[in-house]
Each structure stands twice: as structure tokens, then as C-alpha cells.
Amino acid sequence: MHQHMSTQKSRREFVKHGGLISTGIIAAPMMSNANYFSGANDVIKIALIGCGGRGTGAALQALQSKQHVKLVAMADAFKDRLDSCYKNITAEDLSDAGTKGSVKDLVDVPEERKFVGFDAYLKAIPLADVVILATPPGFRPIHFEEAVNQGKHIFMEKPVATDPEGVKKVLAAAAVAKSKKLNVVVGLQRHYQNSYRELYKRKDLIGDITSAQAWWNNDGVWVNARKPAQTEMEYQMRNWYYFNWLCGDHITEQHIHNIDVINWFKGSYPVKAQGFGGREVRKGNDHGEIFDHHFVEFHYADGSILNSQCRHIPKTSAKVDELIIGTKGKIFCGAANIRDHKGAVLYQFDKKQENDPYQNEHIELFAAIAKGEYKFADAENGAKSTMTSILGRMATYSGQVVDWDKALNCGLNLQPEKYAWDAMPKSMPDENGRYKVAVPGVTKFY
What distance lies between CA 240 and its chain's CA centroid? Predict the structure, then answer.
């Protein structure tokens, strides 16, 4: 199941061309020794759940973590995706990345440990110490819950859910993960990027944060057309970006990165949101039910406001960035500097010190696991930043002011009644092949 190509490219290009950045767990009483690592001779076994572009990149980065790791199991709903992923991973030439030996030496996945189908994750997770969750995000809550229940360390891609009920499931599992001292890293990679970390350390230079702006504006992503003989379930999963039960709309799947930065620097989450959005150019049957633009005004409890925008419209201005405004100055995240209100530079990050945050997520996670350290508990923030993006989607879809607590507890569950190839998703096409799209002023959530 593949994710958008920009992230895949950034991950894979670093593995091929970038130098690696230098940089289990102390088990709870009832945990297996499989999750405790006492030295360099212990092999950390990895299972990959979701074998699209995102999963391929994440697996390669895990294998480049400089620890004694081995990929031992793979799982995906589609056999062709799994086979393609395996071929791509084992074909990679990583010698210029400073790795000893070939990537094939780090992969031990015979046919009997390649699992296909909706229940494939149940077969792969028990075989590993660390689980990589990289399917479309609609599956994240059940996969995360299972991995936690089995006492595994976890890397999971963002977002971590597509609806409020999924967010609640992740929050509950996150609490269990903490009690078991399981390391959990979420792919909100700016938390692992040197420039953002240095800006965060110096955020007090701008005083109290009063407002912020965030952007994810670009041309958009791929479309997979319907093919003859596909069931509705297969079609939607192949074209998953355009269905909310799988993707959550691009405000959740992509723009969560920028929204999360503001939550991180604020140290809090919005209490309500209002905004607008729609479908201006992306209106075809294969575009499912999602919008192509959103603008949201997020309100925090202290009165500060985040103005957030994301757009998927070709030939429009592109911008992916964050700006944080305080009583004394501004943080320009993309430029990696802090200025006072007269424009004087208070701090400038040296871009020569930048790292690849996608790789660094894995470097730091696997280093902690190898040392038997409990250092990472990203799931709660991942769930709440995911909920922030869902709150924004609910605001743009309805055209109403949407309250955080009411939205989180409104009972919205977009998942199908069962996961099977002949099952019917909740969003179905009409006789003309078109899907129902939210209408502001008409659509309601509570």
C-alpha cells in the first residue's frame, strides 16, 4: 500500500546518497525477554506491516540504524505490494551509506514469513521485537493496539487514525504502551530534525505565543483508476488516498505535520476549530470523497489562534512551512531562524548541522532499544495531533464551529463493519460512480 511519493523519495534518496547521522527496553515484570537487549550481540528482529512506498522506506531506514537488526517478517493486504517491496529492499545498494555488507544480509524473510491479507499483521507481529506500521492510516489503530498487546516496540507512521473512535483506541493503547515501557516513535519527523529541535529550545526568545500559521500547499498526489473485476473494497484500498476511512483527507494525511509543529511549540492542543473547504478542481469519480482545499482557524485555550491551510491544486503556489508569532518575535521554521518584530535575527540555525529526520527517527529508536532504554512515548501526541487534523476536517466539512471534546466523543467511526474483500465500505458510489461529498452547512457530526 503506497503512500505519496514525496516522502518515499526523501527517505530513499537519503539512504542512497546521504551519510548516516551518528548519534529491548527494560521490560515490565510480565514482559518476555525478547524485548530486552543486553548487548551488541542481540539481534533486534523487525516486522514490517504495510509494504508500500512508505513501508519500503521505513524498513530500509530501520536496517540502516547501525544496530544489529534483521527484517524477519512482512505483511500486506496485497501480494504484489509485498513482493515489490521485498524486491526493492533487497536490491538496494547501500554501500555508499557507510553500511558494512549488503542489505540482503539484514533481510531474512522466506516465503513462509511473507503474510498477505487483512489478518496478515496478526501473523507477522509475534515474530518480531520491533514492529513498523506503515499501512494506510485507517488500519493504524487496530495494528497499534495489537502490537502493544503483544509487547512490541513500535515505529508507526502518521497519522495514527482517521476518525475520533480510532484516536480513542490509540490513546488507550498508548497508555498501555507506557505501562509496559515500550518505545513508540511516530513518523512526525520534525521532532527528530536538528533545526526544529534547536528552534524549540529557543522558543522563549519570542515570548508568549499569540498566533501561528501553517501551510501544506502543493499540486497533490497520485490517482489509481478503477480496474475491471475489482471489488469496491479492493478499489478503495488501491486508491486509498481519496477515501476518509483509509486516509482521513489530506488535512490529516499530510498537513498533520505542520499542525503538529504548532501543537508541539505551544505545548497544547486546540479546544475548537472553524473553517471552510471544498472541491475546486479535483472532482472526478476517482477522487472519492475528499476535499482539495481546507482553511482552518484553530483556537487554543489561552486565546491564541493557528491559521492553517492546505491545498492540492496544480499550478498554484506551493508552500510547506510554519510561522510562530509571539509577543517578542517570530519563529520562521522553514528558514530555521528567530527574529524580533523589527526583523533583527535573534537566532539562525546553521543549515550545515541539519540531519535527515526520517533516518534519525530510526537511529534514535533502535539505539534506545539496543541499550535497553525506555526513551520514546510518541503515541499520545501522535493521537492528539491526529485529532487536531480531524477536528479541522470536521470544521471544513460542516462549516460549523467544532468543539474538541464533543468531536472526540461524537462516536464517529468511518471503518467498515468487517475487513474482507467482499465487504462494503461505508462510503459507496451511486449509479454514476460518484461518492457522497460533505456539504458545509448540511453535513453534521453531532
Answer: 15
Q: How far apart are CA 238 and CA 287, in angstroms?
A: 12
Give the angle subtended at the CA of 388 by the CAs of 383 and 394, to the nearest 5°.
Answer: 120
Task: For residue 44, give Cα distances in angstroms to 69, 131, 398.
Answer: 5, 11, 47
Torsion, Cα 48 244 403 277, to 10 degrees, reads: 130
> The pTM is what?
0.91
Helix (H, G, I), strand (E, B), or coil: what is residue 321?
strand
Coil, helix or strand at residue 215: strand
> Could you check whether the bond before residue 141 is cis, i.e. omega within 30 degrees of 0?
no
Cell of 355: 540531519
Give every CB contact of residue 186 below 8 A, 6+ residues apart in sequence.
155, 156, 157, 158, 160, 378, 379, 381, 382
The 10s digit of each residue's pLDDT in 314-332 is 999 999 999 999 999 999 9
| 24 — pLDDT class (breaks 50, 70, 90) | very low
Q: What share of the chain is helix, strand, coil (3-state, %, to 5)?
A: 40, 20, 40
pLDDT digit string (tens) for 71-88? 999 999 999 999 999 999
Q: Which domains does the chain have, with CATH numbers?
A: 5-191+357-377 (3.40.50.720), 194-353+386-408 (3.30.360.10)
Cα gap 445→228, rounded to integer Å: 35
